[in-house]
Hints:
Distance between the termini of chain B: 40 Å
Oligomer: heterotrimer
Shape of chain C: globular
Strand order of the largest sheet of chain B: 3-2-4-5-7-6-12
Helix content of chain B: 25-40%
Distance between the termini of chain C: 44 Å
Largest interface: B-C, 43 and 45 residues
Strand content of chain B: 15-25%
Shape of chain B: globular
Radius of gyration of chain B: 19 Å
Strand order of the largest sheet of chain C: 2-1-3-4-8-7
Structural class of chain C: alpha/beta
Order of helices and strands of chain B: EHEHEHEHHEHEHEEEEHEEHEHEHH
Number of strands of chain B: 14
Amino acid sequence: MASEVKLPRLGQGMESGTVTKWLKSEGDAVAKGEPLYEIDTDKVTQEVESDFAGVLLKIALREGEAPVGQTIAYIGEAGEEVAAPEPEAAPQPEKVSDTKVSDTPAAAPPAPVTSNGRIKASPLARRLARERGIDIASLQGTGPDGRIVARDVEAGLAQPEAPAAAPSADIESIPLTNIRKTIARRLTAAWQAPVFQLTVTADMARANELVARARELNPDVRITVTDLLAKLCAQALMRHRDVNVQYSEDALLRFPTANVGIAVAAPQGLIVPVMRSVERLSLAEVAGVRGDIVSRARDNKLTTQDLEDGTFTISNLGMFGIEQFVAVLNPPQAAILAVGATVDTPVARNGAVEIRPVMSMTLTVDHRAVDGAEGADFLRTVKTFVEDPALAL
Amino acid sequence: MPELTYREAVRDGIAQAMRADDSVFIMGEDIAEMGGSMGVTQGLLDEFGPDRVRNTPISEMAIVGAGIGAAMAGMRPIVEIMYEDFLTLSLEQIVNQAAKHRYMSGGQVTVPLTIRTQGGAGWSPGAQHAQQLEAWLVHIPGLKVAYPSTPEDVRGLLWTSIQDDNPVVFFEHRLLYPVKGEVPETLEPIPFGKARVVREGTDVTVIAIGPLVHRALEAAKQAEEDGISVEIVDPRTLQPLDEETLVASVKKTNRAVVAHEAVTRMGFGAEVTAVLQHQAFDYLDAPIERVGAKFTPLAFAPVMEQFVVPNAGDVLDAIKRTVGK
Amino acid sequence: MAKVERETVVGEGTLREFLHDMLLIRRFEERVEERFRAGELPGFLHVAIGQEAVAVGVCRAMEDDDIFASTHRAHGHTLARGSNPRRVMAELYGKVEGVSHGYGGSMHLYDLEHGNYGANAVIGGGLPAVTGAGLAFKMRNEPRVAVAFFGDGATNIGTFHESLNLAQLWRTKTVFVCENNHWAESTPGWQHSPVWDDMSKRALAFNMRSIKVDGQDVEAVYAAAREALEYARSGEGPVFLDIPTYRMHGHYIGDPQVYRSKEDREAAAYHDPIPRLRERLGLSEEEFDAFDEEAHRVVEDALEFAKNGTDPQPEDALKNVYA
């Protein structure tokens, strides 16, 4: 059988070579080691010696480039038939595809990103603003070269209202403060969440007794019904972890601890400082933390940490005499509890009408994250705990 | 706890390792009778004799290369390159040989070699006796690189280097040799890849190596008067690098300064800066500042040398830039 | 310089073993050349065809505990020292079964089990380490010797001079084997060294003992190497073996050798050590063919083994960086 003369590799990195000249013709006798053809590599032109002895039966590549290993000739015995000859020129797939690429119209470049309106802000400031839903463009930078830094975001949250405009017969135009803008944006966002509301009433007799007793035992702090509610809600959340959640684009986030926010009407606007891991705090500790953050909220001294990581919110308008109301969700949290005033109410009890202290609670729930039955079950637990706080232990 | 100078701590580390293990020996130029050009090896010849404390010819390639071969043959040599500027002469041996034998052999070979060297500016030796070249070495896979800043660290890390089965380039700084510090009664090995928080603070983290740790401490004291709380972290080993500790500190303070005596451009600090921006990007409240030598060789005239090399004031300026003061 | 008495050297049985080894190396390298040209082997390869008597003479003279370091032209030394041809070939194919597990390749053959401390692709790069290993043997008072192979080209690099100086100064247990094939890549000896035709003058400068021996006479090489090794082993000091030899092929596989005359190539072929040994043994054609067939058989078996070897996982590249 005829031997195939293959294009040799003649040096490191050589992938192809160009046959420039045959030193033998088809039909010539060839000795092993005799110069057979000339080849051009990227380095040098050289003669290549035959690896075989016999007759040069067929030159498959007379001239031109071929990859290493391609058969370029056949050597065998005189008169021997050779296999179907290879195409004269080596296929050059790379070049073909090159052409294809250049024939294809170039893909349109992405739309240029305009540098106009680029705002100088630190990565930390951008992250905080993103988390708080603050428009970074609304902030004034005080960092080096006017860069918006973390403290500017914090100041933006707690910025006092602009001085009142002079009295005028016309409609007053009060410039929006940053916090007002934030409130507007976040509550508008909240409105896009599909929510449902659930309402219960609870007998507050035992809760009131407990608060009174706790005040006696802890004269240093002022314990309120809100503190008790925060503590009881935290306990209930630990039993109903499916409510202690947040809906996000790709996952439902379930939190291991109950960080309870308290809606505070601060002079500059509504603000919701957060008490962390309330399930681990005693009632007096809750009162201490709550007292601290509420007073700092009113003094405009909250830090960004005070506003982060809430998992549930309580909004209590009882002190305004509101008996029942519906709170707007505080995204990204999945639930907010609206608490009304405790009102002496005639209640049918054991077959008789009694006057009992009754408080209403309305839970607003993000339906994307929590179903109706889960929400109802949670609220029933809250009601049970409020009516008999010992059960929360 | 006893107090040692940095120089005594190095010497004590070498002596303890040699007492503990016969396969440990030291060779280098002028290390025997003279006790080394920095006096570090004084007394070792008397204790261990000329077979284990070897004066070599001025042959940096052969010093490092013979160390490599002895290490491959089961010894734990310590070789001294008198000035790190002269590391350049042995770089082929360090980079192509020491760092790669294990790899090229597919894991058959170990090279437990410690290459001690020293350098640094501040005494006007000119351009060939004061460079800081650690960045060249941390770029080479297969090498470990240590650069301790205190007597305690230098002794503990030197011990670990000698026990390590990999080639270690061990940088000392000339101006640190007389610095005193407390060391544990008995030598405590310090693991590689563990940074040390030198000073805690809340406003800005200074990541410093070698003499810049001390200059950063001075700067931190002055910053405190301006109400800036500075944390200082010394990585101690540059390879492996304790990224976790550096990143955690910067996440806490939200600002970072990286400081070394070597030329700033393409320096070790550039790598640290890249690590921080990548792993702590969303925590940064200011661009990361770098402090290092200006991009020039070291001049002889003291005023020029002092201008080029970073001092505590340069660190303080960088700290202030990060907090916008 | 010592003269070697050739009558008293080795018996015929040993010489036959030398022929076996030399033929194995020759056929191995020829096959490697052929497979490289076929495009099957990656990388940068160098053969030592014509220099087999040096590899076999020196490596056969070493004791089991002796170690050596080689150069980019290392197939011969490695095989002569007893590494498994299958594993050497597998290394050239970049396989896990290779002597360096695919991390080294032709220029970085290591085999610690057979005393191979590594082939080095930086000219003169291994000389300081061999000096250091010889120092370790001396310090521990072990009857072992470290051997460095290098070419005439390496005698011009700093590591050579620093290593010979240090070795002689400290009397390390080292033998320096200069394979003087008179070519530093494409540069002939007379263009690169003032003492190109007598490299032992290099040793003179360091007051080092040297032995000159004909590198095409395996018996003489063996005798000289024994003498050098025993001298070094005794702790007297290192020895420089000056071994003129011939590189019959190019610097690397595929080297067109445009720099080299036909006459020079023919002269090299004339000095082929294999026919010379065959003549010395007085082998008939049949007897010689039997040796040759055995060599071919071992090489084909090695090739088959290597081709069927295991490819490393790409991420294995991240291993073995640190101990």
